[in-house]
Amino acid sequence: MKKVVLLGASGSIGTNTLDVLSNNTNDFLLIAFSVHNHIEKIEEVIIKFPTVKYVAVSSNKKIDSIKKNYPFIIFYEGRDAIENMLKNISYDILVNALTGFAGLKPSLIAIEQNKIIALSNKESLVVGGELVKDKLSQSTAKIYPIDSEHAALFHLLSKCKKEEVKKVYITCSGGALRDIPLKNLYDVDYRKALNHPQWKMGPKITIDSATLLNKAYEVIEAHYLFDIDVDEVNVLMHKESVIHAMVELVDGSFIAHLGPSDMRPFIQYALYEGQTKLISNIDNFNIPDLHFFKKDDVRYPLFHITIDAYKSNPYSLCAINAASEMLVSLYLHGLIKFGDISHLVFEEVSDLKIPHQLTYEDLAKLDKIIKSRILWKVVFKRCLNG
Ligand SMILES: NC(=O)c1ccc[n+]([C@@H]2O[C@H](COP(=O)([O-])OP(=O)(O)OC[C@H]3O[C@@H](n4cnc5c(N)ncnc54)[C@H](OP(=O)(O)O)[C@@H]3O)[C@@H](O)[C@H]2O)c1
What we know:
Blueprint: E1 2-7, H1 12-22, E2 28-35, H2 41-48, E3 54-57, H3 64-67, E4 74-77, H4 81-88, E5 93-96, H5 104-112, E6 116-119, H6 123-126, H7 129-136, E7 142-145, H8 148-158, E8 165-172, H9 190-193, H10 203-211, H11 213-226, E9 233-238, E10 243-249, E11 254-258, H12 264-271, E12 292-293, H13 301-312, H14 317-332, H15 338-350, H16 360-384
Parallel strand pairs: 1-2, 1-5, 2-3, 3-4, 5-6, 6-7, 8-9
Antiparallel strand pairs: 8-10, 9-12, 10-11
The protein binds NADP nicotinamide-adenine-dinucleotide phosphate.
């Protein structure tokens, strides 16, 4: 029986993870979880999982009325709640389903603690890839990806010998705005951008899917997970999101991983450390007609901006990510246009001089600076324009 800590229980991956855990109670014991703003989720989880002993609330929301109903649970509160919880409890598996830069520190802590990490928080590898790589080399921790393309690749690569593999492919649906005429893209309403044709996900990754920032992140994620050069991770545009990943073999044949757009099999595969197990509550899946199309670089400038930034300095991804987190939030609040996201990211990072070696503390500082610079820039511009 493995003791599980779930970070981000109130999110999309968090909710799917709870579903997987509730169907595998013989193997996993949920002992701790975190939420940020959605404190109403706390009681729901505690009631469903009486095994929970610890809860972290990382925002500054007041939870006194909840706490008094559960005197047998230890609550960690405030900015360092997750870190304090992880450092004070005994557990086996960390499911990191946080969104954004906030996910990096918990991943680093779990690596230092030699834990099994079921990783959904892609920013841990995108922003902190170099730090993660370095820490992993001194640890017995293992990372199992939850991201569908990477879980699929992990599955495929586990069936092949290294010398048999020529190239790897991850697929990309093109996001919610792929069929909108280019001339209408600049000021498309955020509700449209949030309406992903295949996946139901949190808001940040959904908007990142529409700009293809998410796909650039996934290329970098694959590089760190599988030690493959970013140029060797190919992106295949595929409307239906049915093929998640493919491996091209040296004899010219391909092996593909197909499945429904449902994160639960991937989460389960990560929790079982790469073993396929029965899932009973999943819909029958019929393979539809499959379509592929060419990536349009004019529509998706952020993809290459991000890959080029990675190539020139992996640490610059911290600035790209911070800018994108703030800009996506401003877009979702109606304060900037969709088309502003990519050019403001570019403007922000194009002449930044970032050292080629940074610590976690340096990254945290950079993250804060970029976010406040973007915020001021946008607010200032709006004030000037009345
Ligand atoms: N959703 C998917 O299908 C999917 C697929 C592949 C990869 N991923 C990756 O998985 C991660 C999670 O995605 P998601 O779609 O589940 O996001 P989400 O629905 O927005 O959930 C994010 C979770 O993180 C918490 N959180 C947000 N900001 C935080 C902060 N500053 N400190 C601590 N906790 C914070 C949220 O808490 P509150 O809600 O309580 O505020 C929530 O529990 C992302 O890195 C995403 O790229 C997601």
